[in-house]
């Protein structure tokens, strides 16, 4: 962010029907960050009118208001201002409200509380506004760069019959096709493989509609690289500008994978901390009531598990776990099993393979499947082994009915009324981050068998 942006005012529209809260919240926000300038309105209708007549950097709104509620207000704002940060700031603590807010496109959902909540709200507003300003500045910069790149990018002209009329030097360098070999020839005769690509369809649509088209595509072999294409209809035919964006596309994909990894990791930790916390609280209560200090061993184990989870979160935040590493089935399985309380349940490892994975994420996957087998399946035995291009985790528990096998990975779905239903959703998220696939089928002994495929596995190195 430019230094000038750091000092720019942040204009906030705060919609709240309670006049005392309007005054209190606006005072707190402006006191915490002197850049904040808060305008208040008592209703969503008044807020929409205000948005039409003034410019704001973000909207903060209550949920339960007379007339239009906060969710409906959010939807109305999104129709007109799809990228404007919107925060639902409400006393409603319902997960249903939070889910509706996220589905409607809220930037964040903040529950009202003590004075520390205002610090949290200010922090989120600051980050959201900074991201939006940076994105807008990046867009302006990108448009200016594109104007500059016009002079050096690939460029060619075809007439209405697709005969090539101009072919610049960059196209020669990129394709290896000389000017004399392409001028006067039909584009699709020179590059017949291109007739099976997106470019073929988009060019024909542009020519027929006389509307410009812009897209990114990967060329067919031997032109296996990403290009950004902008094609403009002209009186003579079509002018095509193209730019090799392979490196930036790869960086974009890598960043996307890393962001997905961090999001998945954060949701995993928040879910998995509940299990050891519940174990610790239960055993501590037993020790206090019975005087049997053996229960404190379970408390210590649970605390150790929570400590490990926190350490792993810190590693991820520092970027220590953003690159995959080589893991083995025989290595990750017992490591994950150590964190599970499983009296009377045995673990068998059939064989071993090695593969690339995000190790802490993979451990979360195994732990969640182990807990699922114990808590929901009542398993006495759990087996782990390799598949062709993957691995499996199988138990001899009660299994998963066939009619539920496509539903178990949905967030919030559970056949147990007391379970929040997040564990298998987290498992699927981890699988997606690795670009694998997961299926659940009936196990050998009637239990559940989870098969992970799409994994590039190999035999472990031989030891002397």
TrEMBL record:
Gene Ontology BP annotations: phosphorelay signal transduction system
TM helices/strands, residue ranges: none
Location of the Response regulatory domain: 11-127
Keywords on record: Kinase, Phosphoprotein, Transferase, Two-component regulatory system
InterPro entries linked: CheY-like_superfamily, HATPase_C_sf, HATPase_dom, His_kinase_dom, HisK_dim/P_dom, HisK_dim/P_sf, PAS, PAS-like_dom_sf
Start and end residues of each Histidine kinase domain: 268-453
Gene3D superfamilies attached to this UniProt entry: 1.10.287.130, 3.40.50.2300, Histidine kinase-like ATPase, C-terminal domain, PAS domain
CDD domains the record matches: HATPase, HisKA, PAS, REC
EC number: 2.7.13.3
Keyword Kinase: yes
Catalytic EC class: transferase
Residues with PTM 4-aspartylphosphate: 62
Entry's Gene Ontology molecular function annotations: protein histidine kinase activity
SUPFAM superfamilies on file: ATPase domain of HSP90 chaperone/DNA topoisomerase II/histidine kinase, CheY-like, Homodimeric domain of signal transducing histidine kinase, PYP-like sensor domain (PAS domain)
Domain PAS: 141-210
Pfam families in the record: HATPase_c, HisKA, PAS_4, Response_reg
Reactions mediated catalytically: ATP + protein L-histidine = ADP + protein N-phospho-L-histidine
Protein name, per record: histidine kinase
Organism: Halorubrum glutamatedens
């Amino acid at each position: 962010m430019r230094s000038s942006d750091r000092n720019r005012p942040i204009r906030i529209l705060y919609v709240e029907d309670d006049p005392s809260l309007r005054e209190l919240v606006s005072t707190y926000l402006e006191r915490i960050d002197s850049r904040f300038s808060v305008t208040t309105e008592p209703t969503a209708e008044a807020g929409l009118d205000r948005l039409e007549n003034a410019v704001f950097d973000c909207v903060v709104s209550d949920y339960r208001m007379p007339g239009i509620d906060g969710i409906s207000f959010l939807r109305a704002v999104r129709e007109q201002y799809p990228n404007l940060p919107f925060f639902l700031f409400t006393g409603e603590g319902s997960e249903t409200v939070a889910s509706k807010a996220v589905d409607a496109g809220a930037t964040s959902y903040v529950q009202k509380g003590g004075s520390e909540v205002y610090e949290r709200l200010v922090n989120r507003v600051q980050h959201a506004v900074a991201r939006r300003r940076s994105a807008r500045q990046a867009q302006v910069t990108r448009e200016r760069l594109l104007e500059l790149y016009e002079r050096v990018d690939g460029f060619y002209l075809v007439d209405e019959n697709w005969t090539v009329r101009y072919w610049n030097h960059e196209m020669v360098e990129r394709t290896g096709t000389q000017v004399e070999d392409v001028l006067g020839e039909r584009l699709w005769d020179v590059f017949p493989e291109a007739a099976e690509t997106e470019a073929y369809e988009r060019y024909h649509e542009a020519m027929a509609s006389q509307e410009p088209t812009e897209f990114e595509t990967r060329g067919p072999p031997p032109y296996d690289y990403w290009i950004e294409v902008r094609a403009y209809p002209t009186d003579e035919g079509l002018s095509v500008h193209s730019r090799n964006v392979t490196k930036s596309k790869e960086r974009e994909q890598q960043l996307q994978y890393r962001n997905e990894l961090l999001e998945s990791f954060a949701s995993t930790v928040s879910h998995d901390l509940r299990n050891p916390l519940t174990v610790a609280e239960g055993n501590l209560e037993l020790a206090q009531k019975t005087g049997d200090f053996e229960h404190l061993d379970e408390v210590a184990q649970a605390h150790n598990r929570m400590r490990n989870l926190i350490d792993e979160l810190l590693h991820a935040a520092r970027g220590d776990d953003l690159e995959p590493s080589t893991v083995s089935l025989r290595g990750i399985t017992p490591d994950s099993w150590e964190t599970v309380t499983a009296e009377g349940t045995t673990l068998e490892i059939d064989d071993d393979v090695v593969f690339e994975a995000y190790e802490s994420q993979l451990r979360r996957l195994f732990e969640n499947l182990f807990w699922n087998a114990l808590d929901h399946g009542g398993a006495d035995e759990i087996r782990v082994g390799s598949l062709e291009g993957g691995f499996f985790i199988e138990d001899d528990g009660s299994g998963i009915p066939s009619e539920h096998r496509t539903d178990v990975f949905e967030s919030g779905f559970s056949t147990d009324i007391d379970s929040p239903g997040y564990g298998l959703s987290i498992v699927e998220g981890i699988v997606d981050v690795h670009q694998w696939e997961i299926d659940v089928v009936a196990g050998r002994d009637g239990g559940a068998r989870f098969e992970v495929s799409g994994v590039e596995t190999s035999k472990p190195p031989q030891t002397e």
